[in-house]
Write a structure and sequence with these properties.
About 35% of the residues lie in helices and about 30% in strands. It is α+β, with helices and mostly antiparallel strands and about 290 residues long. A four-stranded antiparallel beta sheet has the order 3-2-1-10, with helices on both faces. It has a four-stranded antiparallel beta sheet with strand order 7-8-6-9. Strands 4-5 form a two-stranded antiparallel sheet. The longest helix is centred in the middle third of the chain and has 20 residues, at about 175-195. It is globular, with a radius of gyration of 19 Å. It starts with a strand and ends with a strand.
Length: about 290
């Protein structure tokens, strides 16, 4: 009896997000919080949520899997990723289901195909790709691949409130010409920072992208956290452009965590956030294991 398990990373929002060559785009910031999917033979033991059912139906339709097969597979889902915070919880779930069904039925789906399937359902993060890329989260196109990878530490603040991603993307205002030009400068700085392995440059790009996004989804504590990051040796802030999460990019050798937290607790009221995480920024990609 075949058993497939998939681990899909969540994200601390996006390193950068904006408009490039007249296309909406982002670079997700994958972290070590995971959605877990397990597919085994046998009748279902629980109801799937709406988006999971949509992905199941889409794959069965696209790849001509007999509908009666749905009665013979049991898809189990669990997740560590907070929902509606801009942390890719939904993408991690549906991309994990796509990867799991691909492995279970030997469909051989590529990361690119999985991304394209995901955008049929909703605007999508690009956590399914192992390597960083600039991604059109509305149509699923990869606009630019980055040769370098980024691994670092991040202090994540899960602020209160929730954002429905579908509604957010419907309501986005357009960028001005000046803002598009500013984002191109952000992208250039981010790309150069990756090539040079320069976390300060990467952090500056991320912080500027977060500021550009303030008119679309305002975060009242963004500037306070950016200032604290700079004061105590962080490299900048990374935000959920379509959510409430804000992360401080740091490296252990440079960051004064104790002093940062002492000041943070005085600056940000506890009533404004739900949780703090110390996490790692990791390569993306969907991790699959198969037992026959």
């Amino acid at each position: 009896m075949r058993t497939v398990t998939v681990k899909s990373p969540g994200s601390c929002g996006e390193f950068i997000q904006g408009i490039y060559q007249e296309q909406p785009c982002l670079v997700s910031c994958p972290i070590d919080l995971y959605s877990n999917i397990r597919i085994v033979e046998g009748p279902a033991t629980r109801m799937l949520d709406t988006k999971a059912v949509q992905m199941l139906d889409l794959i069965f339709s696209e790849y001509s899997i007999p509908r009666e097969e749905k009665h013979h597979i049991n898809i189990q889902m669990s997740s560590e990723i907070p929902i509606e915070k801009g942390m890719a919880s939904s993408t991690a779930d549906i991309a994990g289901i796509a990867r799991g069904l691909s492995a279970y039925y030997d469909l051989g789906l590529s990361d690119k195909t999985i991304a394209e399937l995901c955008v049929f359902i909703e605007p999508t993060d690009n956590i399914m790709f192992e390597r960083l890329n600039l991604f059109n989260h509305v149509c699923g196109d990869v606009l630019m691949n980055f040769e370098a990878q980024l691994e670092a530490q991040i202090l994540i603040v899960e602020f209160k409130g929730a954002v429905n991603t579908m509604n957010f993307h419907r309501q986005q205002d357009g960028y001005t010409r000046e803002e598009v030009d500013r984002f191109e400068a952000v992208l250039k700085l981010f790309k150069q920072g990756l090539q040079d392995k320069n976390l300060n440059a990467i952090g500056r790009a991320c912080t500027e992208s977060a500021r550009l996004n303030q008119k679309i989804l305002y975060k009242p504590h963004l500037e306070a956290l950016a200032a604290l990051s700079e004061e105590f040796g962080g490299h900048g802030v990374i935000t959920g452009h379509s959510g409430t999460v804000i992360g401080v990019l740091y490296s252990e050798e440079a960051f004064d965590y104790t002093a940062f937290m002492q000041r943070f607790l005085n600056v940000v009221p506890k009533k404004d956030y739900d949780a703090l995480f110390l996490k790692n920024i990791i390569p993306g990609g969907l991790r699959v294991s198969i037992e026959n």
